[in-house]
Amino acid sequence: MFKTIYAWCLLIGVFAPINIVYAQQIRLPSEVIFIPKKILLGTVQLETTIYKPEGQGPFPLVVINHGKETGPPGLQRRFTAGWASRFFIERGYVVFLPMRTGFSKSTGSYVGGECNVESNGRVQAEDVAATVAYAHTLDYVDRKQTLVVGQSHGGWTTLAYGASKPDSSVKGLVNFAGGLRQTNCSGWELNLAKAAASFAKETSIPSLWLYGDNDSFFTKQTYLEMFARYIKVNSQAQLIEFGVFGEDAHGLFTHKDGRAVWGPYLEKFMVQIGLPTKVIYPQYKTG
Question: What pLDDT is stored for residue 26 in this prediction?
Answer without folding.
Answer: 76
